[in-house]
Amino acid sequence: MSDIDRDFGKPESYSERQRMNFSDALLSKPFESGDAALDKVFCLGKVSKEGHVWTVSVDSGSPTVALNQKVKEQLALADSPTVADVRARAVYPELSLISGGSFVWLHDHKGERLVCLRRDEAAPVDAGYLTCPAGRSGEPLTQTIVGETNEELIIIKTLRDGQERFKLLGFFRDENTKDKIVQQRLAQVKRIHDNLKQRGRESDAELLLKIRGEDDVEMLQIEGYLDSNPNGEEVVTLVRSREIDRVQNSIVLFDKANNTLEVNQALRVRLPEDAEIQTVIDGEVFGRKIEMFSSLSALTNEKLVPALQNYRNRLLAQDRET
Q1: Per-residue pLDDT tens for 170-189?
Q2: Pairing relationship of beta strands 153-160 and 275-281 according to DSSP bridges
Q3: What pLDDT shows up at residue 12?
């Protein structure tokens, strides 16, 4: 019996090396802030569908995937393919990349808007296209969706008793993760503030100084803001035939060209009457441009990543049917 077979069901027993090399070990104990492999090593799985339910199956010893060749060499991941390898089905053709994210609609007195980001012109895939918060999964998909939704810095302004106050929106699923996410968000604000200063974006950097502590983060439980969709799908993740995760009410696309299962949830966040959107800032150091759209029809002439194109097409088709 291998070490990883013996340790199955005991995530605290997995070594860092096991988690770097095997998707089943990584899903049992994902990397956290400070780990060398965070956002560099991801999971792979076999994807199937029956009815409205998609299944991601991760078998014993299924390899992880490295972001690129440089990461593969740095972390000595001899048996792990790169993202480019998996996209091209050059190795492990039965396995696919898994991605999670969200379509976030914000509603204030000015109306409702969908938060989008413009990909860099130098991006290796879909350069210059519009996307929404999303990323490859190195943990159960329900966690990936929360993490990616929290990537963008959504700042709202309230006016109460004649006083302006600024807050950062944060999203969570489980109460026991709430405090941890608040601290992650505050650390992110500090990191992006410093990056904005370096880029010369003084006004945005100054605004982030108003997010100083826990009371400046408004936490929202994702399930309370899910956009109900009668055609919503489910995605079940099985590790060695055991269910470890289930995403409900999701919009799913299998992107054949990139060999990627794209799993998103749509959120509609209605702000209090005395609140409005102040700004949205890219929460990563890329400094991507944020663009907001009042309707999916407004995206007609835009270049969209496949998951966003799929979302737009589905909802517009539903509107025509009704």
Answers
A1: 999 999 999 999 999 999 99
A2: antiparallel
A3: 60
d(CA 173, CA 90): 37
Q: Given its phi and psi angles, is residue 321 left (phi above 0), alpha (psi -120 to 50 degrees) or beta?
A: alpha
Kindly state the DSSP code that residue 233 receives in the 8-state scheme. Answer: E
Q: How far apart are CA 30 and CA 19, in angstroms?
A: 8
Q: What is the CATH number of the domain that holds 48?
A: 3.90.79.10
pTM, two decimals, is 0.94
pLDDT one-digit tens code per residue, 61-88: 999 999 999 999 999 999 999 999 999 9
Q: How many domains does the chain have?
A: 1
- Domain of 20 in residue numbering reads as 3-321
Pairing between strand 130-131 and 111-118?
antiparallel
What is d(CA 283, CA 70) in angstroms, rounded to the nearest whole number? 24
Do residues 311 and 103 make contact, with C-beta atoms less than 8 angstroms apart?
A: yes
